[in-house]
Amino acid sequence: MTDKLEALSQPVAVVLNKYGDPEAFGERELKLLADLQKVPYNTNFYSQEYVTALLEELRIAKSDRDKNGWYVHECARIQKLLELNGVKYE
């Protein structure tokens, strides 16, 4: 894993129980782990499942090169979605 990828793989936030109550009825809070000053305004946070699904769509699109123009268009669309979510994919 490259150093940049290693740095990007670090969590930026964690969901915790606000008062230490049992999970079934506890109140949740979001604790930032990243330096908030480095996070641009209007940054959205997405679930890992969403990003993983986008990466899988890209993998499938790249392996399905027989669909002519669909491949180029679909890969470009998925790569744009990934970039909007802060994921660089070559």
Describe the structure concisely for a colleague.
With about 90 residues, this protein is of the alpha+beta class.
Write the layout of secondary structure elements.
Elements lengths: L2 H6 L4 E5 L10 E5 L15 H16 L5 H16 L6
Antiparallel strand pairs: 1-2
Name a few traits of the molecule.
two-stranded antiparallel sheet, 90 residues, 2 domains, elongated, single chain
Structure description:
- By secondary structure, the chain is an alpha+beta fold.
- The protein folds into 2 domains: 44 residues, no CATH class; 45 residues.
- The protein contains 3 helices and 2 strands.
- Strands 1-2 form a two-stranded antiparallel sheet.
- α2 runs antiparallel to α3.
- The mean pLDDT is 76.
Helices, by number, come to 3
Radius of gyration: 17 Å
Mean pLDDT: 76
Instruction: Describe the global form.
Output: elongated
For the sheet with most strands, the description reads: 2 strands, antiparallel
Query: In whole angstroms, how far apart are the ends?
Result: 14 Å
